[in-house]
């Protein structure tokens, strides 16, 4: 299993990444909506709980997380 992304990591902070999308800073990231989460993001490579993300090589993000690079999985 990959180590989890640290929310305090500079990349995570700059992209507004949170393990729980409900805690995203809405003032800084107004595009975030409740239906956007890592589990349905085009960059997510994981399963039901945690998985890789091409934005954070070697680390795992939470399926219920979110960051500003979110893109709809098609
Ligand atoms: Fe989650 Fe997508 Fe951001 Fe990766 S790019 S942290 S999968 S929202």
Distance between the termini: 26 Å
- For the secondary structure, the number of strands is 2
Biggest sheet: strands side by side, in what order? 1-2
Kindly name the structural category: mainly beta
Main sheet: strands, sense, barrel: 2 strands, antiparallel
Shape: globular
Can you walk me through this structure?
There is one protein chain. The protein is mainly β and 74 residues long. The protein contains one helix and two strands. The chain has a two-stranded antiparallel ribbon. Strand 1 and strand 2 form a beta hairpin. The protein is globular. 28% of the residues are buried. The chain binds iron/sulfur cluster (SF4).
Structure summary:
The longest helix is centred in the first third of the chain and has 6 residues, at 10-15. The chain has 74 residues and is mainly β. The protein contains one helix and two strands; from the N terminus they run H-E-E.
Defining key terms:
single chain, 74 residues, mainly beta, two-stranded antiparallel sheet, 1 helix, 2 strands, binds iron/sulfur cluster
Compile the SSE list and pairings.
Blueprint: H1 10-15, E1 50-53, E2 56-62
Antiparallel strand pairs: 1-2
The structure holds iron/sulfur cluster (SF4).
Iron/sulfur cluster is lined by residues 17, 38, 41, 43-44, 53, 55, 61, 65-67, 69-70.
């Amino acid at each position: 299993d990959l180590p989890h992304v640290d929310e305090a990591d500079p990349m995570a902070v700059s992209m507004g990444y949170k393990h729980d999308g409900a805690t995203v800073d809405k003032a800084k990231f107004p595009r975030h909506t409740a239906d956007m989460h890592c589990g349905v993001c085009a960059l997510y490579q994981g399963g039901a709980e945690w998985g890789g993300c091409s934005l954070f090589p070697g680390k795992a993000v939470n399926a219920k997380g979110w960051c500003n690079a979110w893109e709809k999985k098609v």
